[in-house]
Amino acid sequence: MVLPDLSQLPPWAVVLFVVCLAIIVGLAWLGERMGRKAPPATDNARILGAVIDGKKADEMIAAFGRLSTRLAENTKALEANTASVASAEREIDEARTDIRELNREIAKSVK
């Protein structure tokens, strides 16, 4: 590779060329130095990979769907259980009332 003859350029163009070249080399050196100081991004890359992975996202969506279905089923079962407990409570109250009335009748008959 043959370099062009810079002696034919005006002095301001040569200075401008050298300044531009120095800026390019300085930025490359600064980027290399800053890159070495930066912490490794392996953790972020792992998290990003997990988030971007479409198969895992589909699996998570399916798992949330199953969870939602199970929660709905459990809610219905709890509602049925609550209704049966309320019914049992009413029956116990009725039995308590019947027992009190029976006690009163027995007490009257004994006197």
Radius of gyration: 43 Å
Shape, please? rod-shaped
- Tell me the β content: under 5%
Low-confidence stretches: none
Quick check: average pLDDT?
83
Separation of termini? 131 Å
Which class of secondary structure composition applies to the elements?
mainly alpha
Task: Spell the H/E element sequence.
Answer: HHH
The total count of helices amounts to: 3
Number of strands: 0
Number of domains: 1
Main sheet properties: none
Q: Give the helix level as a range of percent.
A: over 70%
Explain the overall architecture:
The protein is mainly α and 111 residues long. The chain has one domain. Helices cover 86% and strands 0% of the residues. The chain is rod-shaped and about 140 Å long.
Question: What's this, in brief?
Answer:
The chain is 86% helix and 0% strand.
Task: Name the features.
111 residues; single chain; mainly alpha; 0% strand; 3 helices
Describe the secondary structure blueprint for this structure.
Layout: H1 11-37, H2 42-52, H3 54-110
